[in-house]
Amino acid sequence: MLCDFRPTEETNARGLPKLRCARAGCSNVCFTRHEPRKIRFACKHPTLVALGEATAAAIKVATLGLVREKPGCGCAQRRRLLNERFTVAVPNWLYRAWHRFF
Predict the structure, then answer these.
(1) Cβ(89)–Cβ(43) under 8 Å?
(2) Strand 17-21 and strand 29-31: pairing?
(3) Helix boundaries (H) for 1-102
């Protein structure tokens, strides 16, 4: 899952605007003039479901573990793409509430 960068009012010594990930628990910061949607940092915020991992687990269960990943088959690339594009993040309010009590 990639960070959801949002602009802040701060800048660095070179005058570049500071962007911070909007998800709670992620401390990624970036100084750039690029659009936030073009920045590709791996987010540290916890996830509920990563579609690539769920798909890999479903294939393993459906085939009783007989089908395995082979070098160069493209499984790792498919898993990475699905994880990047279709991952459900824990809502910020739930993450904050969890850390308040535990």
Answers:
(1) yes
(2) antiparallel
(3) 51-62, 75-85, 92-101
Q: List, as one string, the DSSP characters of 6-23.
A: EEEEEE-TT-PEEEEE-S
Q: Mean per-residue pLDDT for 90-94?
A: 86
CA contacts within 13 A on the Cβ side of 38 = 5
Nearest one of 56, 60, 54 to 86, comparing CA atoms: 54
pTM value is: 0.58
Both tokens of 47, joined, read 């996830």
pLDDT tens-digit series, residues 28-84 = 999 999 998 888 888 888 888 888 888 999 999 999 989 888 888 888 899 888 888
Burial 9-45, CB ≥16 within 10 A → b, else e: eeeeeeeeeebbbebbbbebebeeeeebeebeeebeb
